[in-house]
């Protein structure tokens, strides 16, 4: 698997260069699918204008508008109602999945319901997550980030990496996302964690983990 787990998209040259390196070819030669599903579960970002901005490449968080050869939409809530032959080949052939932010538990629920969660480990595509799109890869997200409640309860997510992520560290619009808050959150988690700001990403290839940053971050070991 190739994962680029960001707090707020491709926000600087270091993260952009990491993405191109993971693709193994220029962005202009790469086909992308964007996944807006997490947005619908979060009261601040969807549904409505924010979802349209993300899909159309008019968002302040750079992912869809990077100059891809093509961009399609993969809406996870629709997939259980259509035959897998309609969408699985499309996902297998794409170069990159662009997974937007929102509510991580809502995203996790629909990744599982749609079947995408089972498909992810076998994909050759680069997975680029933003905020909740990154957090969903972890074993769990912690009570600090629980918003939408899944039918089974709890805060468990996909466990495709062995660490959890606290995004938007020290963000001016999120006064609660301080380093002190991240430390308290990390102390209550079951494994290693990272707090990352919007200029930081975590690059994962197989089991190799690398922080790519022009900003502020911290790795907590518990």
From TrEMBL:
One Pfam family it belongs to: Peptidase_S51
Family the entry assigns: Belongs to the peptidase S51 family.
This protein's UniProt keywords: Hydrolase, Protease, Serine protease
SUPFAM superfamilies membership: Class I glutamine amidotransferase-like
Lineage, uppermost ranks: Bacteria, Bacillati, Bacillota, Bacilli, Bacillales
Domain of life: Bacteria
Molecular function as annotated in GO: serine-type peptidase activity
Alphabetical list of InterPro entries matching this protein: Class_I_gatase-like (IPR029062), Peptidase_S51 (IPR005320)
A GO biological process held by the record: proteolysis
Protein name (database record): Dipeptidase E
């Amino acid at each position: 698997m190739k994962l680029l787990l960001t707090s707020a998209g491709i926000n600087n040259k270091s993260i952009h260069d990491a993405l191109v390196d993971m693709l193994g070819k220029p962005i202009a030669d790469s086909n992308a699918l964007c996944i807006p599903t997490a947005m619908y579960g979060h009261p601040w970002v969807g549904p409505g204008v924010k979802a349209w901005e993300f899909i159309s490449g008019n968002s302040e968080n750079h992912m869809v508008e990077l100059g891809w050869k093509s961009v399609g939409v993969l809406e996870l809530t629709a997939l259980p109602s259509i035959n897998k032959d309609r969408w699985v080949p499309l996902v297998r052939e794409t170069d990159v999945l662009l997974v937007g932010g929102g509510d991580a538990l809502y995203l996790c629920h629909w990744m599982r319901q749609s079947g995408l969660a089972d498909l992810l480990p076998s994909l050759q595509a680069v997975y680029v997550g933003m905020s909740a799109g990154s957090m969903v890869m972890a074993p769990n997200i912690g009570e600090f980030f629980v918003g939408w409640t899944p039918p089974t309860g709890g805060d468990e997510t996909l466990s495709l990496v062995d660490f959890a992520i606290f995004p938007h560290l020290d963000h001016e619009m999120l006064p609660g996302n301080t380093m002190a808050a991240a430390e308290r959150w990390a102390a209550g988690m079951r494994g290693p964690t990272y707090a990352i700001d919007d200029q930081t990403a975590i690059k994962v290839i197989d089991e190799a983990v690398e922080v790519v940053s022009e900003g502020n971050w911290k790795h907590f070991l518990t």
